[in-house]
């Protein structure tokens, strides 16, 4: 299957992408991984991306599209893939359609993870991260530490990232609504969109997604 995963910040796209890709036996292709791989390997696209990033500028669509095209052409993606974070806007969606058409294939589904805006704010603004080890993550409501402000694992100080504040989250949501959300209507016109609730336990959301994808294919 060839799937695009969309949803607002805090919808759990990265987590669901990993689970779904494993269940469907297809590679997860995320924008973040593409950038890291190309930059660390020193590819031409990676060098271009770094030059824009170092200058504090957005990486142009053509660079991101080039990275995605290269990754989707690799052998492990021959029978399908799950795109996480790409396409990010209608222009990228149109480029993806053109790429796939050139290869004589097309998308099977666009999975839209739906989460109320207030829940997104609650999820992200409630995160607290250990200063000693960034992999130790807690949540003031869903996974609180035993002692407030202290990591259960190593005793390090827990802090809130600057981009996890409520104001920043709402700004990120505005960007999502203006730039990325329009691709849902773009794909809905192609009858590709499958929308599910991303509320609840991770496993429940994964099962919901798998059932929705099977029903859509059926």
TrEMBL record:
Residues the entry annotates as binding AMP: 31, 36, 57-59, 85-88, 92, 161, 172
Assigned protein family: Belongs to the adenylate kinase family.
Binding annotation for ATP: 10-15, 127, 137-138, 200
Function (record text): Catalyzes the reversible transfer of the terminal phosphate group between ATP and AMP. Plays an important role in cellular energy homeostasis and in adenine nucleotide metabolism.
Protein's UniProt keywords contain Transferase: yes
Subunit composition and interactions: Monomer.
Protein name per Swiss-Prot or TrEMBL: Adenylate kinase
Pathway assigned in UniProt: Purine metabolism; AMP biosynthesis via salvage pathway; AMP from ADP: step 1/1
Subcellular location: Cytoplasm
Enzyme Commission number(s) from the entry: 2.7.4.3
InterPro entries: Adenyl_kin_sub, Adenylat/UMP-CMP_kin, Adenylat_kinase_CS, Adenylate_kinase_lid-dom, P-loop_NTPase
GO function term, MF aspect, one: ATP binding
Comment block on domains: Consists of three domains, a large central CORE domain and two small peripheral domains, NMPbind and LID, which undergo movements during catalysis. The LID domain closes over the site of phosphoryl transfer upon ATP binding. Assembling and dissambling the active center during each catalytic cycle provides an effective means to prevent ATP hydrolysis.
Gene from which the chain derives: adk
Top EC class of this enzyme: transferase
Major localisation: cytoplasm
A GO cellular component entry from the record: cytoplasm
GO biological process: AMP salvage
